[in-house]
Design goal:
The protein has 2 domains: about 180 residues, Glucose Oxidase, domain 1; about 35 residues, no CATH class. The chain is an alpha/beta fold. α2 packs parallel to α3. It is globular. The relative contact order is 0.23. Helices cover about 10% and strands about 25% of the residues.
């Protein structure tokens, strides 16, 4: 956590490191220097040196955001998202130990316009074989319920918001089909209160891409809790 001017910032993203695995079967990122400090010194007369980095990775790496384009060719891509969909969303954390997370977890809560974050604790398996299979996920019924409640975003701290044991992805279809953003592979949700925080997850403004890593975080504070 970081503290500043009466507010607390809680980081909810995994670190992206060279060679790490997010999805088994997808290549890990390759992170290196494009311009090394030692080589750059020859271009300056005052002793200045600079590093320019290079990264080669698939978009589904680390903690990332899915836009509608990820699932639908005609949906909004990353560049088509409005900042109001990504920044300072009123947040709500719902906690469960279930594997198949049904609509009953969400019933009875004021969900409209909120970032609904599902805390399962599965992030404890991050970067292990256990993380990849048998993970918590939403049911299709839960997705339909969240869509009817007009939530803004749904996040989860597990391998996928859908059940990857089958060959269908109904939760992605329902949520993204209703312009509800998805944030997967989150972490540190246990550090958040159930409510009274603002959630932000902003990807780069890239055209023609539907998914990209984000620095997801929550902001807590007395003025925020009063909103």
């Amino acid at each position: 956590m970081e503290h500043q001017e009466g507010q607390t910032l809680v980081d909810l993203s995994h670190v992206i490191e060279d060679g790490m695995t997010t999805h088994k079967g997808l290549p890990g990122p390759h992170i290196c220097d494009f311009w090394q400090r030692e080589a750059s010194a020859a271009f300056y007369d005052d002793g200045s040196t600079f590093q320019i980095g290079r990264i080669d990775m698939v978009a589904n790496t680390g903690t990332y955001l899915d836009s509608p384009f990820h699932r639908f060719a005609g949906g909004a891509d990353l560049a088509g998202l409005k900042l109001g969909q990504l920044v300072a969303l009123p947040g709500l954390v719902l906690r469960t130990e279930a594997t198949a997370i049904d609509r009953d977890l969400f019933e009875g809560h004021d969900l409209a316009g909120k970032a609904v974050l599902v805390h399962t604790g599965w992030d404890r398996h991050w970067r292990t074989d256990a993380y990849q299979t048998g993970h918590p996920h939403l049911t299709e019924a839960a997705a339909h319920f969240l869509a009817r409640q007009s939530v803004a975003l749904v996040g989860i701290d597990s391998h996928n918001i859908d059940d990857t044991g089958g060959r269908a992805r109904p939760v992605h279809t329902v949520l993204l089909g209703n312009d509800i953003l998805i944030c997967e592979h989150m972490t540190n949700l246990g550090a958040l209160p159930d409510a009274g925080f603002l959630f932000t997850a902003v990807p780069p403004k890239i055209a023609g891409m539907g998914t990209f890593p984000v620095r997801a975080f929550a902001m807590l504070g007395e003025t925020i809790q009063a909103r």
